[in-house]
Specification:
Pfam families: GH16_XgeA. InterPro entries: ConA-like_dom_sf (IPR013320), Glycosyl_Hydrlase_16 (IPR050546). The structure is a single chain. The chain is mainly β. The protein folds into two domains: 1-41, no CATH class; 44-176, Jelly Rolls (Sandwich), CATH 2.60.120.200. The chain has three helices and nine strands, in the order H-E-E-E-E-E-E-E-H-E-E-H. It has helices spanning 4-9, 141-145, 172-175; strands at 13-16, 19-22, 50-56, 68-72, 78-83, 92-96, 129-132, 149-156, 159-166.
């Protein structure tokens, strides 16, 4: 990843007509084993709870591409809200949980999902627990053809929930700037 001044001076990050553009270098021919210049932004502040919303019009898609919108803890924990790899056609939501010890702790709940039974990021290969969205328009070519969408993550004492919406189906409360997870189908009884 490049720093801010390099990104701005080389057209890898800019604002045009009120939209923010971030991208990887797609014009330089690279030798084998060399990494492509790209942009990563991070918050200086750390959050333990909140409602996070991303409105995206287009996401990089194709061979050797790996865009993501995620939250990361100060150690190795991570929640992937939007993650696409190569030419996948579905978004992958994943949790990589940091536990201080490789010894299982009896009071922690089981962390299970569709694709993996242990979300612990300290256990190689740090696969995490992932849930693949069913819609082909959640990532990839179909996502970009329908002008992207909106991703929402709610993180509070009741748990973590992630939603995605086509632009044509974004709930009115989000559009009005007063997002309410309970109108998105969240129930506190959901584990």
């Amino acid at each position: 990843y490049v720093n801010k001044s390099f990104a701005l001076n080389n057209g890898l990050a800019y604002v045009q007509n009120g939209s923010v553009f971030m991208k990887g270098n797609d014009t330089t021919w690279l030798a084998d084993g060399k990494f492509r210049n790209s942009v990563q932004i991070s918050s200086i502040l750390q959050y333990n709870t909140g409602l996070f919303i991303l409105d995206i019009n287009c996401a990089p898609w194709g061979s050797t591409i790996w865009p993501a919108w995620c939250s990361r803890g100060p150690l190795t924990g991570e929640i992937d809200i939007l993650e696409g790899v190569h030419d996948n056609e579905h978004n992958q939501v994943a949790w990589h949980i940091y536990r201080c010890s490789l010894t299982p702790e009896p009071n922690l709940p089981a962390l299970n999902s569709q694709n993996n039974t242990d979300c612990d990021s300290m256990i190689p290969p740090n696969a995490g627990c992932g849930v693949q969205e069913w819609s082909r328009a959640s990532y990839g070519e179909d996502f970009n053809l329908q002008s992207g969408g909106v991703y929402v993550m709610k993180w509070d004492e009741n748990g973590i929930a992630v939603w995605s919406f086509f632009h044509a189906a974004v709930p009115a409360d989000i559009v009005c700037g007063t997002p309410n997870p309970y109108t998105m189908g969240f129930t506190s009884s959901c584990s």
